[in-house]
Amino acid sequence: MDNILDLRSDTVTQPTPAMRMAMANAIVGDDCYGDDPTVIELEQQAAAKLGKAAALFVPTGTMGNQLAIFTHCQPGNEVIVGDDSHIVWHEVGAAAVISGVQLRTIESHLGALDAAKIHSKIRHGADIHEPQTGLICVENAHSNGRVIPLATMQEIWQVAQAENVPVHLDGARVFNAAAHLNVDVREITQYCDTVMFCLSKGLAAPIGSILAGNEAFIAKARKKRKLLGGGLRQVGVLAAPGLIALNEMPQRLHEDHRNAQLLAQQLSTIEGIEIDLSAVHINMVWLRFTRELDVEFLMQTLTQAQIKANPPEHGWMRLVTHWQITNADLSRIVSALKTALN
Fold first, then answer.
1. Domain Aromatic amino acid beta-eliminating lyase/threonine aldolase, which positions (predicted)?
2. What would the pLDDT profile of 256-303 be if each residue is shown by its tens digit?
3. pTM of the entire structure?
4. Which domains are assigned to the chain?
5. CA distance linking residue 174 with residue 281, whole number of Å
């Protein structure tokens, strides 16, 4: 065994050989001046694929989400968001620091938000004591690995439209969601005003995300990106692999999903491991240890098998498949976990 299997996330993917060649040969300009042709091409193609008028290349998904909040909202606004969302859990409280907004969390059902609950929380600021709802944020695919049904997206969108509140979609893995639902990604993004997705997760680009919306929104977001220190220069070297990520990698995401399902099925047969197979929608396997576990021995066993994984938290462990985890690799993973539990 001379290859390391990295299951920590799909953010660990290495760029494909074609991406590396594209980086070397990229035609570049200065994106801060708006004249990097490769960036322009990526932004235009991304906007078209998402069914939006314009798009903006940003370094990270967190910047894309926070830029959306920063652009949609005024300081003192309230943002309605799920209590288990990435924006709440993993973005360092940035909404308060950058945009001066407060997050009003509502309970989600395994990542899905109830439109009626959202409707009940919307505030228009008529009362001098109340903030105004500036934005509703939803997530699909959710960071728990589940895909939110289109009907749920539509119900939230209809409430937002009726109340004149914009919707932002944290679509870090929206192409995974589309692959799971077997629909064009625009079937999902039609139910939001703006959307962010990551080129650097399952699509395997080395860096970068896209924020998309209407032309006025993106023009405003471009200036705010500069304010945040995101004015980019010869970034065509990163947009070039992004074009491959956008145009070629979505077609193979079903392979990652299938490998995750196969891995989950095999791991579920091991005594001491519990997996909800119906929850394996995309490329994530969440497993729960049902008996006492020596975590140090588990991690040592995985290391000896040349497998990288994040240690379990509160009895749960996440394994993520991607283009560098093949069907042939699954047996090594299963074997290592069997050894760790024996």
1. 6-288
2. 999 999 999 999 999 999 999 999 999 999 999 998 889 999 999 999
3. 0.96
4. 5-11+252-341 (3.90.1150.10), 16-248 (3.40.640.10)
5. 12
